[in-house]
Every structure is written in C-alpha cells, then in structure tokens.
Queue: 2 jobs
Job 1
Amino acid sequence: MNQTECISIKNADLGYIKNNSHLTVLKNINASFFMGEMVGIVGINGIGKSTLLKSISGLILPLTGEIFINQRPRKQMSLLELSQQISVVLTEKIEGFNLTAYDIVASGQMPYSNSFNQLFNNHKAYINEAIKACNLSDHINKLSSELSDGLFQKTIIAKALAQQTPIMLLDEPSAFLDYASKHDIFILLKKLSEEKNKCILISSHDLDLLLKYCNRLLIISENGCELISTKIAKENKSFQIISGGHIQQYY
Amino acid sequence: MLFFLASCFLSLWYGGSEDLNNQITFTNNFIFWQIRVPKSITAILAGSSLALSGLILQIIFRNPLAGPYVLGISSGASLMVAASILAGSSFSFMTNYFYGKGFIVLSAITGSFIVTILILFISKKISSNVILLLIGLMISQICGAIQTSLEYFSDSNSLKTFVVWGMGSLANTNLSDLTIYLPFYFIFMLSILFFIKPLNAMLLGENYATNLGINFYKNRFYLILISSALTGLTTAFCGPIAFIGIAIPIVSRLIFKTSKQQVHLFSCILIGSSTLLISDAISNSIFNSISLPINMITTFIGAPLVIYLMFKTKHW
C-alpha cells in the first residue's frame, strides 16, 4: 500500500496505571494504519480492543513505546491538536440536560469554536453536512434519550464526522443494533473512508460485516496482534485460514 | 428566549421592589439604607451564587439531583465556620474585623471544598445518583454532629453568634460585610465565564470531552474550586440556605429547553436571585412583627418542587 501513513504504533505496551502499578493489557504492539482505509479490530472480550482505541485517541497514555499520529509523536501534541486529528465513537450513552441530537452533532465543532462555544455559519455548514451524510435530518431535534439505539449511534458518528478529523475510531458501533442498522452504519463508514479519504478503525464482533466492508483486519490475541488484508485473504483462500484457524481460536 | 429572560428580569425587580415597598411605608430612611438594601443585595448575591454552584455540581457529577445543600457541601462549610467562630475567640487577629471575616470566609470555602472532593471520590465508586444523595445526607449529618459537639464546649457568647447564623439568614449581612462579599463574588462569577466551553463539553462525559480537546481533570478541578468558593462564601455570610442550589438549575432547564450552558448560567443567576428575593419578601410579610427564617421558605418552595419534578420528568 503506497498511501500516507497516519497512525503508527511502535513497540508500545498499552494498559492502565492503577495504584502506581502498570496493568499491561497489550504487550509490544507494532502496527501502522493508512489514510483511506477501513480496518476492523477483532478479538475476544477483554483482550484490549477498547484499550487500543483509547490509547490511540489519547484518552490513556501508552505505558511504554510511542504512538505517532501523522508522523508526529502523540506526546508532543496538545489535546486540542489531537482533537482535530482523531474523533472517537464510544459505547457510552449521552443523556439528560436537554441534549438533543443536534447538540451532540454540534459538539463535534467544539475544537474549532471560540471559548464561548459560539457557532458561526462555517461551523454550521460542517454540522449540517455531517447530519446529511448520516441521514439524520428528520430526527435532529429529538432529545438524545428519545433516540433509538441505531439513531443514537448514527448521531455519535455524525458528531465524529462534524469533528472534521482524518482519523475516526469506533468502539463497537454495531453492538445493540439490528441487522439492517448494522449494515447502514458500515455502508456509511465505508463511504466516508472512500470519499473523504479517512482512516477508520472499527472494533466489532460482527466478523461477517468486517470481512465484507473493511480493507484489513487487526486480529488481537494473547500472542499479540496481526494485520491481515481482507481482500487478499479472501482471494488466496487464506480466508479459510482466518475463519478456520485464527477466528475459531477467538470465538 | 428573550421573552423569558425579560420575565426573569421583571420577577427580579418585582421581588426586589415588593421587598422594599413593604418597608418604605413604615420605616425611615436609615433602616431602608442600612438594613433593607444590604439585605436585598445579599439575597441577590446568595441566590445567584447557590444556583450557579448547583448548576456546576450537576454538570460535574452529571447528576441532575446534585446541589450544594443535598450533597452536604453547605454543611461542610457550616462546620468549618462553626469551628472558626468557636475557636476563633482565642486568636488575637479575630478581633480585627476584616481579618476575622476573611478567616471565616476562607474556612467556609475550605470546608465546602473538602466535602466536594470527598463526594467526588465517593461518586467514582458508585454508579447510582440516588445513593450519592444518601451519602451526601450522611456527610451533612456527620458535619452536623461534630458541629453540635463543638457547640457543647463553647462559651455562651460565641454560641449565640453561631446559632443565629446557623439558622440561615440574609439579615446578618451589613454594608461593611458586603465590601468583603462583593469583590469575592465578582471574582468567582467572572471566572466562570472562562469555563463555558468545558461546561458544555462535560455534558458528554469525560471521554468525549477529552476527545474534544478539553482537559477534563484540570477543568473539573477549577470548577469544583469555583463551586465550593461560591457555596462557602454564601454560607459564611448567610448560613446554610436550603434547596436553592438544587432547584434553580432544574427549573432553568425546564424553562429553557436548551443544553447551552451559557444560557443556563445567566438564567440561574436571574432565577436564583429573584427566588431568594421573593422568599425573603414572603418571610417578612407572613407575620407582621417577626420574620421567619429564610430556610423555612426556601425549603417550602424548593423541596415540593424537587419532588414534583422527580415524578414528572423522566428524561433530565
């Protein structure tokens, strides 16, 4: 692949710091991701999919090693710079305080607004673009607690889109969704990664969807992680190996 | 929205003038300027401080039922004030007016800050909003118990000062108190303006706020400091005043259907101060000869309101 590298993880141990002791979840991770590709992250529960995504997005720091975002070490970037490079979609619910779907999408422009969080026409243009891309126009004035799981997930994706970042990280966006909504969301993400040349990382348990829509798979196991191209895997019959060998190991 | 802001202004002036009119008819100028005006100004300051403090706490805890009084933060401030009044008689600098008042204000702010940090640590261990309130209740009980035992060992003079103060009253603040109260008030009020964006981001929770470029822990620390300072300041001058802090932000969210916290900041200032002004007017006008403690009125207004809203609203 001769595309621009946007995330590279070098010799990183990832995990949490609790009571001054390191809780290493993922050991010695080396991986690179490129612009315009969609990578699926698979692995059993608790293996560290969320830890990986949180480490890349800067919500937690790598214990050792370094993560480079667009060839720049993450440590040197401020939170604001990082927020203009990476947007996240997490499993958390956002509720209450009169928050509507529009408010959540609009918060994506927060890294670009002034300290009073005023939205001007240029901000609103990005927000409306994100709403349109996610087909949310009919539900935009609903309170977030009134949204169905699928619509809520789309709202958060629209927020990430409104953040105008080259990198999007999604933590189990397809959990709790029905089959049609899952496909909706994956088709939407595929479109984004192709049209806007974004790098999209998705952790999910829906292997069929990942194989169908992603360019590559990052398989995390106790032995470390491994990147496999879905296309090549399917063509070379090594798909058999994935489904027979690796995957069975994980499920 | 402008209409609502205008009506808040109206109620503010109505509350103020009602209060003043009562008195102009049968008192002289001296009482008007030396007692009525300071009292009304105190009501405005206290009402808006407590309402804002409650608003900040509700956002920090992401819990619409948080407030300085129900979480025991006011009690923490009272305890520290009690300790400083009762112990203070042995310090020589307490005889100086400004040092004495300043010492009490500082200890009240310290007290509320300690309780807020304590509650924050506890809130990480538990997930339920309601249990947090119960813990707040327990903390205020503990503070109350320590306070009572302090009173037991104190001399009659400082005991009286404290008991009168502990009932919560707007009337104890005179003009020279206001010269201390006002500057502090404006410092803390203006400093909130720097945190409008973090407040909006915090509604989305820690992770999303961080992802939007907001340093969550740093901003939360400053906001806790401001919120405790506002509660502590008010408690130092007026004693613990109940239910303004929890009820006003809820009312504000019901009136203004927006999640923009800059709107709620201003509406809390307006609604909070007008509510306390009206409560003060009511407390003075029910009986001719005596004025009821302000806490009684605010509890009568606030507590049923909170209960009603808890039943009525499913989504906060």
Note: Confidence is low (pLDDT under 50) at residues 14-27 of chain B.
Job 2
Amino acid sequence: MPEKIKLMDWIREHLFNVVPMSIAVIDRDFNLVYANKPFEEKFGKWKGKKCFSVYKSSTTMCLNCKGAEAFQDGKPRVNEEIGFDKSGKLTKYIKHTMPVVDSDGSIPFLVEMATDITEASIIKKEYQLLFDQVPCSILVIDRNFRIVRTNKKIRETFGDLTGKYCYSSLKGFNDKCLECTARDTFSDGEMHTGNHVWRTKDGEDIHSHVSTVPLFKEDGTFDMVMEMAVDITHTLELEDELKIAYSFMETMIATAIDGIIAIDIEGDIIIFNKAARDIFNIHDKRKMTKIELEVLLPEGFMAQVLLGPGHVYLPEAYVKTIDDDKKPVRLSGNKIEFGDGKSGMAFSIQDLRELKRLESEKLEAERMAAVGQTVAGLAHGVKNLITGLEGGMYMMNSGMKKGDVDRIQKGLEMLDRNILRVSTFVKEFLNFSKGRKIKVGECEPGKIARDVVELYASQAGKFSVELICETDDNIMPALMDGEGIHECLTNLVGNAIDACRMSDNQGGNHVWVKTHEKDDVIVYEVVDDGCGMDYEVKKKVFTNFFTTKGLGGTGIGLLTTKKIVQEHGGKIELQSEEGKGTTFRIRLPRNRLPKPESIDI
Amino acid sequence: MTKKIMIIDDEPDIRTYLMAILEDNGFSVCTVLDNTEVKKGVLSEKPDLIILDIMMPQRSGISIYKELRTCSALNAIPVALISGMMPEKDFIEKEFPALVDDKSVSPPDGYIEKPVQVEKLVALVTQLVEERG
C-alpha cells in the first residue's frame, strides 16, 4: 500500500504536474474538482469554481457545452476553444474531453486536457496573410486537378475557383492540358516551371509564368501541388517592343548609307553593315576580326578611340580596302563604356568618293563659267581698246585732211598709248586664262603680309601714302599657296594706294595691311581711307574686266584675287563708303584650306 | 546757233576722240574733268546734250546720271550713255534697270556703243539736239 501511495505521488509530482498541458477534472455540476500545475499557471485559481468561470471568465454555462454532451453520451471529443487566461488575455486551446466511466456505467467526472494553440494560430494567420498578399497568384490542386485553395490574387483575377478543375476554370478546356507542369510535379515530386495563357474573369488573356511544387506532408508523401504564377504579360509586351526596336535598329543599320561597325567588349565585331562592306570591298560572307579592321583604318585610329577622350572625328581621311586600294572617307570613332573599365567601339564611315567627284565637277563647272565670263569680258576689254585705236586713227586721218599737224601728233600719241594697252591687256589676260596649279606649302600667314608691305613701301612713299603693317605674330603656320596669297595682297594693296591717290579727302593717305586669326579663321584686311566706292561700283567690283582706272587698269586684278581666295576655300568681302575709304577682307577657314596635293585649276 | 555737247568721260583718249568728231560736224563741245563737280559744270555750261560714260573711277556714270535726272534744273537736258559693255538693246532692257535699280529714274535718251561708229554717233546727236528744238 505505501508503495502504491508512493507511485501516486510520483505520478502527480513528476508526470501530472509536469506535462506541458492543462489537465482538469470536473464533476457533473461542472465544478472543478482537480487540476494540475500547468492548468493553475494558465487559468489561475480553480478550487471551488465552475469550469466556465475559469476557462471563459463567464458566469453562465457555455452554449453547446461539449462537457455536457460527453456526460450525455460518454464519448471523448476534441474541440477548439477560445477562452481567457488568468490575466484576462484571449487564449486559444484545443481541449480533449474524456469521460470517466464508472463500473456501473455512470459518468461522474470528465477529464479535460487543454493544449494552448494561441501561438500556432498566430503563425497560421501570418501564413494565410502571406499566402493571400504575395504579388503572385497561388493555388493548390489535388491529384484530380481540382482546385482546393486559392489566394486573394487568384480570387481577384479569376473569381472563386475552389472546387473547379484548373484546366477548365483557367483555360476553358474540357480536358487536361497537353503540357502540364502540375502533372510533372505529381509524377516526380520535383518543381517544374512553364508558361501558360490564362483567361481572367473579365475575359482578358494574361501570360503567366507558373512554378509547381509538391506540398509534402510529414511522412514525405504528398497529395497536393501548389502552383505559383507570375503575370508576365507586361514583360512579354516589353520584350515584343524591344524586339521591334531591335529589328528597326537592325534595318536602319543594314540599310544605312554610311558604314557602321561595332566591336563588343570581347573585341568581336558584332556589326559590320552593307555600306561598310562596300567601302572596304569585303564580300558579305567574310568574317572580319578586330585586328584585320585595325589595319584598314588609318594608323593608330583605333588606339586613339580607345585611349583618348572617347570620340575621334576625322573629316577627311583615307582607309585601305581589303584588296589594298585607298578610299577617301569621313571617319568617326566612339568608345562605348560598359563600366568596370570595359569598353567597346563604334565606327561610322562615310564614303567621300561621290562627294569628291561632285566637288571636282563643281570646280570644273565654275572654271567653265569663268571661261564664259572671260570671253564676254574679253570682248568688252577689246572694244575699249579698239575705241582708243580708232580715236587715234580718226585724229590722224582728220588731221591729215585738215593739214593740222597738232591733231596728227595727238593721233599718233593715242595710237602709241593704246597699242601699249593692247599688249599689257593681252599679257594679263593670258596670265589669267592659262591658270596655274596652286602650290601648297607651309606658310607663315603674317610673313606674306609683311613681304607685300615691304614690296610696296617705296611706291607708297612716292605718292605720300603711309603704308602700315599690323600682323598678329601668334598665327600658326598654315598650308597655303603662299605665292597666290601674295598676289592677292599685292592686288589689294595696289588698289588701295590708287584709291588714296584718287582721293580728295584730307588725310586720305593711309593703307593698313592687317592679319589676325579668330576661331580658326585666318583673316587678312587691306584698309584704306582713300576715295571709296559708290553703290554701282561696289556691285561691279568682282565682275570680269571691270575697271574704274581708265587707261591704268585692265580689271583683272580683283578677279584674280577672288579666284585665288576661292581656291583656298575662303571668301573675300568688301566694305566701302564713297569718300571715306574701302576695306577688303579675306577670310580663310583653316579646315577648308587646300590639301598638300596640287589641284588642277 | 551752234549746239553745245558736253562729254563726260574719264579716259582722255576717248574724250579727245569724241570731241574731235563732234567739232568736225559743227557742234561745240565742253567737258567736266572733276566728276564730283558735274552739277556745277552743267549749270554753268548749259549744254544741249550730255554724253556720259558709265564706268569711271571714284564716281560711276550711273550715279552722275541719277543726279542729272533727279535735279529739276537739269532733267530737261537729254543724256546719251556710252559704254562698251553691250549692244544697245541689252543695255536698255537689262543692264540699265539692273544698274539703276530705281524705276522712277527714266531711261537715257540715247545709247552709244563702243567702238564708236562715227556716222551713227553724229546722226544720234543731231537727232537728240533737234528733238529738243
């Protein structure tokens, strides 16, 4: 007997009071007659209290009291309950109710065992929230492809699908899909992915990227598969747009008039369009390497693009073709940075042959026009000479008839003068018409001006004209036809001195020769404060054989000057005011100056 | 009464030539040497006709012509322009309107093309002077 008491004590102390659940015994009047330590710790004092007052802080019996039912039918039951713990906090627990059946079949007591599930239900709620709120559609299907559960996203997009077959509710099919990722997962227990088009409850088709995973149970088996789907409609649209943009760009590159070449970070040529192939004479199938291309481009060009500031532009350069020919091109190279110091390159190449041909045709047309003008001007010049000669003849003849020796003498002088004019005119005309090759070499722009001033110094002095040279010594040497520019300045300075001689103004006896450079344009100015020109003269100045100098000029000087300036890619401008003076300005942009090879004029 | 013809041309040889022809045909002649003083010269000489060269230094014949035509004291005097630039027809139809560029300035009464044909010159001068009465 003492043994038995000892065992009971042990059971109470080491089992009953230690198990992690609340255990209580109630009698038929729902009085708590016994409870273990965990019960007291959870629900508080119980002795002499009714079960409902302890479990639920209630003064009356619960509706649908499971204890009452168990007293009635003697069957144990399990129930999920909500009550309050000793501090009044809501608590969730699962209660096992077991009737204690006496030998006579009566049921004097119930043993109730409660397990707290408050924590578990919070976690469950969190998972539910997660399940519903993730930004993708989730559904759970069973082996018959019936939808068991759906999340909020699915319900919003497709309506309530629970209990329906996935293939009919999502796709409107009568039977299972031919390709089914869920079936694959059911057969091998692995995750599978695939793309499907699903129809929403609004009848809109959306593209879904679907992953199916088995929902394993504790024992490692599974009966359900969870399908997670992301709407990729927008992504596909973007992909389509990208494809269109790409094919648009590809077409542009393929049909571009200029050659386009691109090299990626690996140094592979990824674009080499038709125009580029035509420039280098490379047939369509031949694959090019970066090293091969580097040889065809101007020496050092590729290195300059890679190592320099990233953009190199050559308005005029030569490339080699694959068959070792040379072609004039306009070339632009760009470095394309991809981060991490990695970079690719892109080249744009314009074939300049057509342009060059047009340029030379234009030059030729201009030359022909000049010849036409020259012939017209020649006739005019000749008419003047003939008039002078005829005048001489008239004076001679009429003088002889009249026996007027003075008149005969005058006539002879006129003939002499005009014969001299004829020979000067013919010489200058021949000089102009035969043309000359411009001889391009490195010249010091300031020095040419100083030379011309020196040349005219004595002549200017003779006419009391002050000749002043103002040159900027910082002008860098340039490629020009030094003799040609010298001739231009000679003509202009000669004219300016004449203008001063013809002037009536006080102090109208200065000629300035100025040179400076601004924005890569070399500028020469010949300025005088002489007689100036009126409107009609200004309009005629650059036309052929226009002269205001009477016997003194042939009208060829300014025409020649204009021609030389044009050959240098420059312009000549005129500002003049009657009685105030004249400024001739020659502007030579450096980038238009002639190239060292001589050009036929 | 002898008619007086004024010749304005900067080239002495042409001037001498024209003056000789006209004198030989019974006209009296005069000239203005300073182009800037044309108005003064015309007012004092009161010629019956002016023969004016178009191309001259300093001041072109066209600017002198405009002045003669726009001055009320002078615009009754007939003016014949002389030039080697082109035939009469081209000059009156194209060159003159382009040079003058002012529709209010009336075209010249006559045009003499260089080289000068003596008979033609004398006929024109005679006609212009007689027209004037």
Note: The two ends of chain A are 141 Å apart (CA to CA).
